[in-house]
Amino acid sequence: MSGKHIGKQTIALQNPPCIAAGAAVVGKKEGEGPLRERFDYISQDSYFGQKSWEKAESTMLKQCFDLACDKAQTAPSSLDYIFSGDLLNQCVSSTFALRDSNVPFFGLYGACSTMAESLSLAAMSIDGGFADTVCALTSSHFCSAERQFRLPLEYGGQRTPTSQWTVTGAGALILKNSGSGPHVTHITTGRIVDAGVTDANNMGAAMAPAAYETLKTHFADTGRLPGYYDAVITGDLGVFGHDVLAELFANDGVNFSNIFTDCGILIFNVKLQDTHAGGSGCGCSASVLAGHIIKCMQEGLWKRVLFAATGALMSPTTSMQGETIPGICHAVAIENIQEAS
Length: 341
Known about the structure:
The chain has 341 residues and is an alpha/beta fold. Helices cover 33% and strands 23% of the residues.
């Protein structure tokens, strides 16, 4: 086993890549939330000038990609790889957004955990010496996700209290093999955890056990206590999933509520914006990470953050067939460290 591998599921990167820049693009509703000042661009048009929701999502993701490259002063042609995915069939949002980039492309699917998955693989490719400059990104769109996973908006279906609002948003990070920004230092890759939840309107409960297993493993593998981090941020468990995860840790005698939050809670004011249990979707954790978390670290508000994005691995077909909803969670430690001399 490589010397980089510690414990059961964690990698300690020997040459931690730097996050040179991040960009976040969101829709109107997200721009009305608590993080409005942290996003790079807020569209007032949910179609992003296009004729379909799916084209809108691709346009949003392409805009986010271009912004991240500009902020990092990195030409797309200088990228070694792109790691991207989304919620739609065949990852078409990413495919059509990046089809003209002419950059080697890895298409990913990790449901709402895709940002952590893409960030993990991007960092590993640089640490392994396979790349110098890489982009990790993902997106989701409320309307395209509703059409694929639930019912067309025209149906006017009633939302349950445990349901979450799919974020219209995208996040992109440019990683480099050197630099002065926050660095990716550790990666704990999650296992599939099936808690037996079948309610597709209660994703938080389905994903919380996976987050618990990954976070518990990360702390055991690294020997770190939760308090080592200035913030432990999951995504996107929402209000109910966050409470389930807190209860699971409380049963172990662990209470870190002062540093523990969730991207699905941060992005909306759940009461004023009527988003029920909070935000969800690939773009939720992606836009919060690239638009808020990284900026907090660049501003020196946080030095160490554990970002743990979660995903519900299901489809409408499996749910209609009575299948349960397995969950996944990948944790990435991001730290402000001194560049090696």
